[in-house]
Write a structure and sequence with these properties.
Elements: H1 2-19, H2 29-45, E1 47-58, H3 63-77, E2 83-88, E3 91-99, H4 102-112, E4 120-127
Antiparallel strand pairs: 1-3, 1-4, 2-3
């Protein structure tokens, strides 16, 4: 009985080992077309609703140069976070990051507030990656 069980287990193990190399996927052409259309449309979209962190807003005579200086100082401190200079009359605003959710933005907000204590999260159009 033991020999029979040992031979059976050996044959089963060999069968599983050789069966793994013969996996084949049959994908219908319609599914591939849907996937390609999905990828194309998201790339074409470019911007989606999301969140950014606003670190400064200036208005007045030298507001543009002040905003550019704030953006440059932010970029020097946080080189891996994108920054944007936005003009909404009469303000030049410096906003940073591209976050899909408020929670993602909040994680970076704690670090940014050490340098920019008045920073806060704002809804904005963000770049789709």
């Amino acid at each position: 009985m033991r020999k029979f069980l040992a031979i059976f287990l050996f044959c089963a193990a060999c069968g599983f080992a050789f069966a793994q190399g013969n996996v084949r996927y049959d994908i219908e052409p319609g599914i591939t077309k849907i996937q390609e259309d999905y990828i194309y449309n998201w790339k074409k979209l470019g911007e989606i609703n999301g969140f950014r962190i606003q670190i400064a807003a200036y208005s007045g005579v030298n507001s543009r140069s002040q905003a550019e200086a704030a953006r440059n100082s932010f970029t020097a401190l946080f080189p891996y976070t994108r920054s944007y200079l936005i003009y909404n009359e009469p303000y030049f605003k410096v906003r940073v990051g591209d976050y899909y959710t408020r929670l993602q933005a909040f994680k970076d907000l704690e670090t940014i507030r050490e340098t920019y204590p008045s920073a806060y999260i704002v809804p904005d159009k963000i770049r789709y990656r």
